[in-house]
């Protein structure tokens, strides 16, 4: 992986430059908003990337808690698989299908549902208990960065379009709450030295992830000032814009993977150093105690 890191870094940098060129010069200008709409190619991919990272944090935290006992580990695995299967079947049930927003295809819902157990099982296969905790922490840190980009670019886009920087719209408010939840998660991880901190943080992450569907579906089921979705939901988007959007999302996803990889290795090295220091301190204390016991009979003999 270390050998591939420089190559992946160069490819990611090239992809980011290409995506920037596509967003600024190739994508057509939006008819009503004009040039300011080009921030769309950074605002939306940042949100999608943040959601993906928070979702990984959720699955890693869930497995970290479930792995405490073999019974809970098996129960969690089969529960996630059952949710994925039911989620893949439910959209094709007429009663459920009629409740889906216009333009949201059952196949899209089914595919998303099947991805949940697939990613869950992949994470469990390649990450052990401590690695799960490090993965959750890494995903949360990088996810907060991308979510911050969303909260910054949103008002910059809204000011010339709405005439205001911020409004307590449901989509905006729930996104801010999501950001605050994960910032709280990072604060807990940073300033708490308790042995129970990883478990407490994992519980917070599991409950915090419940806000992600609310953020995503807020403009589907509620009347909000935020623009309605242009992908699904009865919306439409120019194919050229869609292509540029996907290119930028791919570039942002590669950047997120690159940063997560580097941050994961850094966290792993940090914990190895802390364990070595703790072991050295323990051995040093043991040697001091041994020397004290060895000197005690000599002192008595001298007396």
Brief overview:
The protein is an all-alpha fold. The protein is 79% helix and 0% strand.
Could you give the distance between the termini?
Answer: 65 Å
- So what's the overall shape? globular
Q: Report the helical percentage.
A: over 70%
Beta-strand portion reads under 5%
Main beta-sheet annotation:
none
Order of helices and strands: HHHHHHHHHH
Q: Which structural class best describes the helix and strand composition?
A: mainly alpha
Detailed description of the structure:
The protein is mostly helical. It has a domain at 36-237. It contains ten helices and no strands. Helix 3 (70-89) runs antiparallel to helix 5 (106-126).
Give the topology, please.
Blueprint: H1 4-26, H2 40-66, H3 70-89, H4 94-97, H5 106-126, H6 129-162, H7 170-191, H8 197-208, H9 211-221, H10 239-302
Helix pairs in contact: 1-10, 2-3, 2-5, 2-6, 2-8, 2-10, 3-5, 6-7, 6-10, 7-8, 7-9
Structural key phrases:
10 helices; mainly alpha; 303 residues; disordered C terminus; globular
